[in-house]
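Justification of computing resources. Each target in the renewal requires a structure prediction run like the one illustrated here; the chain below, 345 residues long, is used simply to show the kind of job we budget for.
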Amino acid sequence: MAALRRQVFDWHRLAPLTWALLTRQTPQPGGQKRTTAFLLRKLMTVSNGGGLEESSLVKPQECAQKPEHRTGLIQRLLEKQKTPVLQEKFVSSLLDMGFSDVHVNELLSTQPGTHPQQMLDIISELILLGLNPEPVCVALKKSPQLLKLPVMQMKKRSSYLRKLGLGEGKLKRVLYCCPDVFTMRQRDIEGIVGVLKEKCLFTVKQVTEILHRCPYVLREDPGELEYKFQYAYFRMGIKHVDIVKTDLLQYPVTKIKQRHVFLERLGRYQTPDKKGQTQVPNPLLKDILRVSEAEFLARTAVSSAEEFEVFKKLLAREEEESEGCVADEESPDEEEEGQKEGQEL
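Resulting structure tokens:
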């Protein structure tokens, strides 16, 4: 109430001075409306709860004082808010969490219309998951819609991620690569986790490691993810431990197949037998997938780019023909269908 009285007093003290200046001002022809509108906006800022320092006419010393730990930009952003008390609490809480002035500036500018308590609740959940201020700011800048999530949904998703082992700092990479992990549907995440556990038979610890090292798998189609694993496990002979260690699941299946089959037809790769043995030494997976195409051709395949381009076109044609044959086998001929219908009649 005292603050309201001071604001009303400041308004009545400022208004006569401003209108006096307005009447004395002699602008250029055609500029009077613009000048009047500009000063009226300043006056409305004061009357709507803005600080007196918003006016270019009066700047009392008491309004120019700022806390030592706050930058000028933070102060100006706070003055524009309709709930200065909540904003004060918001800034103080962020500073206590270890956020710098620069971080606070970024967060205040991310979603200006979001309620301060809402922002504080969401940021607190991310901090409780083991994130530092810097990755929190990066995630919220990339996905500002996170600040609009219902707090209860955020808490439930945080609890689920902890059960998956993605707390204590492991969420940093996940948020950087896939910030929509909090906005995705629960059943979509559970579908990916179910494929890794039940279809691919990874252990709980290995699933956690995959989600940490290859968070892009959360965006994949469950069927395509299962096919990628089966190709690596059965066709290439790669074991579960090596699939996790080499981050194989983060690469597109097309890239995996192209480079593997190309090496295979050059005689530089063989699928290991049941004992894990091959007649030729297979190159390391990092030399197959983690390198650029130029380095792959020069060091691993020892082949030319022209030859590889021709091979990729042939491989694509072979796969199209193979898919066509499978489709023909799965759909019975019209004559067979007619014979079956005649027998039923």
